[in-house]
Records
---
Amino acid sequence: MKTRTLFPLLSILLLAACAGPGPTPTAAPAATLPPPEVQSTIAPSAPQAPTAYPSEHSPSPEPEAEPIQTVPVEVIAEGLNLPWELAFLPDGQILLTERPGQLTLLEGQQRLAIEGVLHRGEGGLLGLALHPNFAENHWLYLYLTSEENGAVVNRVERYVYTDHSLSERTPIIEGIRGATYHDGGRIAFGPDGKLYITTGDAGMPAAAQVLENLDGKILRLNDDGSIPEDNPYGTAVWTYGHRNAQGLAWDNQGRLWATEHGPSGGESGNDEVNLIEAGKNYGWPQIRGLQTAEGMVTPVVESTRQETWAPSGMAFLGGKLWFAGLRGQTLYALPVDDLRPETLERHLAGEYGRLRTVVLGPDGLLYITTSNGNGANAVDRVLRVNPALLGED
């Protein structure tokens, strides 16, 4: 696989894409980020009224810019510590979370230490989402693991983000059980303007079937944390029966898809791609893989017991769901109009280690984070991938 290491400013890249083809940029060393140094100061905020949005999903548009990358993969940053989520600011700069507790502005090489983060096992600073009207309100959302009264918990918080500083800390949802494993953590705004949140079963499988708790669920909230009137159970719960969903993406028809980790240990495998529909029960722990039961949904595609993907972040591009594999160490692609195990594509297998996040950039390329560190070693990278140039493994 031909790989270039490059770290151009995203704003320059976008201008070049609009101007048409130009000379190939000269390769430069990838940016290596320094250790965390900056501590955020967070002030409480007054409550805000929820923002009104249309009640129906609209198709998610794909970027119009033509990709200008001429090699399949470019390493645009390295020296990161377990990056978990990535988002693009309106000016094209990249903001990401690092699981030990840092919110990092990639190109400015600036880190903010987020207060209250407990980095233990799979927990820490996980999901990141920008409000659909971020350019006006500067609202930024984080999913994090913390400790309260001796118990491990997960929660979502909202901040005002300006000039790489945080203020007006506002709890959005609390009471999500945390654990060393199965913390979920993906958050994303849908085409309907609602905030979707994946939670894990926190090592207590039976909790995924209990509608009265928030564990092993996909949640749906208004932007202020209130419950949308059309949620199926009158609570934050949108769907249930999930073991540890970690990827969310909407296709061009407005349909929501999720990736989910199957059993581990001696029963490893049965990782899933699911079509998410309101109120449905996705079966964990009663069924797994392609098993069936009345009132429960089986995945559209699963890995079988012979293979483990450990799927995480996901994006939709070119009619395909692109998702990262941690244990699989692979970038997978699944066409939504032909959902069969035989159509699942495998790319970059083993070339960059464990892959965590896949995000569609404003330039029409995929941005992928690796997850090869251990909390002490900052060895992870951000990759920029041109899917049109990938060969299937």
---
Amino acid sequence: MNLRHMHALVYDLGLFTENALRLLRDCASVKYFVPWVDAFPEPFKAKIGEGLDGMERIVSFEEHLDAADFVFVPDTLCAGLVEWLKKHDYPVAGAGAAEKLDRWHGRQRQKENGLPVQETHRVKGVTALRKFIREHKNYFIKIDVFRGVEESFRHIDEHQTEWTVDRIACKLGPYKEDVVFVCEELLEGMEPGIDAITWEGELLFPTACGYEERGSGLIERVYRTEAELPDAARWVDEGLAPEFKKHRTRFFYSAEFRIGPSRTPYLIDPTIRLAAPGVAAIQAELYRNYTEVVYGLATGKKTAPVITHKYAAALALESQDARVGWVNVGFPKEMRRWLKLRMAVRKGADYYCVPGFESVGTVIGLGDTVKEAVDLVKQRAKQVKGKRLTMDETGLDRIVDQIDKGKRYGINF
């Protein structure tokens, strides 16, 4: 498929700049938009993607819509836009109506579609949550929709959790009794995930499964056929397929699940968007025909990923300075393809991450063995420089241990 004459338009929320840039390798142009308008705008979100290796940063999405050959919407919270574009016959790749932000709703659909469900409680308001943590131990607590208030956290006992609840109450102020918490039983076992593409409920092969250690890294294995895929991953995909079919979803998705000695997979978090930071970074290079895949999702031309490696690894780069200030990221020119920056700009010859997020980027590596992929990542990561830049290489070693343990539960790797 020759896309050299095609013009892509990307609507992002700032985290998938590199996936937009990847399209430029095969298209005539890529225009990149991140919403930035505010009553008192600052030059941060309006700059994400600016000057980045030939990609054009635009300040208005609508003005460029009719000139685009296809639209790519990689992130969540954009279902309304994606469905509007579909309704008006714009070729668009995005999650659309399948993007269910209500976790409680998701658990009900999960049960209806035959997936196992761990003990789960819906708790409304901080007062009810305080009562819940007094009476229960060993749960994961998640906030519906507004994850910016607090990421999902582990509740061991009241003493460990009360300060987190205090912080949430302070942030929410007068709305602290309105927010909904989903509290899920903390299960023993391993936590692998499937990182895939659905075509209206059909799983496209080859696909991948992997293990992630948050804030550290990710290791993935490619599965070329349904017969190769672990039974647990197939079970999870088949449980999600009816929703994808109902909404005619053609897009990327990821789903982490918990599995133990019973080999029964309990779905943790389905993500109907690009998964970040490691998965999306890996997919941009693991899929040799990445642009063709995205174009096919937008236009209805079913295109299976072309993958030549069996394994991939990613190492997360973080800087606490990036939360409040610009961080310059330095690296050798030949490393550019293997370093995927987040919320990035280029000014002259220098690359910077826009203030507001400690996640700076991801270093990736592909290989035919786990060791090859991991060693490449570690070698490359040593070449990246930045103010107070941190990385946890030992996290990849811990994932290798998880891979070995997971084999006992049927996760062939």
---
Amino acid sequence: MQALFDSFWRAAVYSLHWRVLLWSLLPLALAGAAVGLLGWAYWESAVAAVRSLLEQTQLVTAMLNWLDDIGANRLRAVMAPMIVVALSVPLVVLATLLLVAVMVTPAVVQTVAARRFPGLQPLQGCSWWQALAWSLACTAAALAALVLSVPLWFVPPLVLVLPPLIWGWLTGRVFAYEALASHASPDERRHLLRRRRWPLLWMGVVCGYLGALPSLVWAVGAAALIFAPVLALLSVWLYTVVFVFAACWFTHYMLAELQALRSAAAAPGAAAPPEGLALDPPTPAPARTPPPAAAIRQLPEPPAP
């Protein structure tokens, strides 16, 4: 637990490092530009499609007519845009997470390793395309879990538990893998991901709840639709800040665990590493060669007392 809190405050400090801030501008610019262009090109057509789908559903039509009868006809106009926003937010979160993981995390790893772990040897356990494939596979699994768990969101306690748990699992799997990609061997990476799976899940859930905070900018109601372009860019910036912090947190924690693993394996008299973990054994000390017998015979005799 102490390692988690130590890496937490270090991540808060490193999130303000000039190099990390500079690299965080790239995913922010890409995600912000993508959200702006897609909103400009498809906002009206998406709202029209959702409104048409709602009007074709008898149950929704009856609910809308009931709202008109009680004088809440304004909800009819904002229901379709709010549904579009609700469906778009998870996609924005996933895109921002992937961009930060691919573009910012390698720079964070280099900065942390150079400043805090200069003696940690990089083993290049995986290539960039393997890390990208891992991130895409985890993202697809998390997206499928979100879609399948939507019916459970209508149960009041579960809506506060399931989405952060899924986001936490995804954050932990992606950022922990990226943090070890350049320094750990495949065996070391698999061992640490399996051994520290519960702390990683806990860290991911914390980041998942932090990642839910930017969604509160849309909680102002129908007035949020008036400022939708500004709020969309603001939410992208907040998501970027949260995931950059997550990248720093997982990097500090995983590199510290990797260094501790190697130090324990290289210590004299250390126990054998776990099965499947291939670590280089410590270099034995050179044996001392005894002096030849002739040199011993030539040594002067000690003086008699």
